[in-house]
Amino acid sequence: MKTLVAALALCLLFLPVYQAFSIDMDKKIEEMEARLTKTEKQWMDHTQITESQKNDDILRELEAKLKDTEKQVEDLRAEVQGIFTAPVKGVYYFSFSANHRTTKPSGLRLMKNEEQMVSVYNHAAGNRHETAANGMTLQLEVGDHVYMRLMMNTWIFDNPSNYSTFIGFLLFSL
Ligand SMILES: *[C@@H]1O[C@H](CO)[C@@H](O)[C@H](O)[C@H]1NC(C)=O
User: Which segments constitute the C1q domain (predicted)?
Assistant: First the structure.
């Protein structure tokens, strides 16, 4: 019972932080989508005016704006889902740690796009806390995705002590 209350308290502690983050991101996505709709309409309007009034430069500009806005919406969505999207071509370093209670196994994969780069796995063994960690230097192209994937039937644990982490930084661009 005590553990349950503690776990619940932890969830409640994290909830406002998570909610604030997701509301903020939802608002940002909404704003971006509104901009996308507006640009789409401008583009549509311009394609429908008479041939003599058509301006290829404006059309090209609108098309570029449309593409750019679409990409920004896509990147924002990925961010919300915890997926890192490389903004520049370069060499990055990523590391992660996963704490778990050993009543069940724990397994995590560091993914680059759909491919596993490195992983950790801890077998179930008794009932104590253990941490596994790994990391790797990766060369990424613009738009490459890096994220963590939990292995099937495994778990990780965390509390405000931040035992389970996923960090990355750009070492240098190429
Ligand atoms: C855990 O991470 C949060 C957010 O990054 C930070 O504010 C907090 O100080 C960290 N707590 C500990 C114990 O390191």
Answer: 38-174
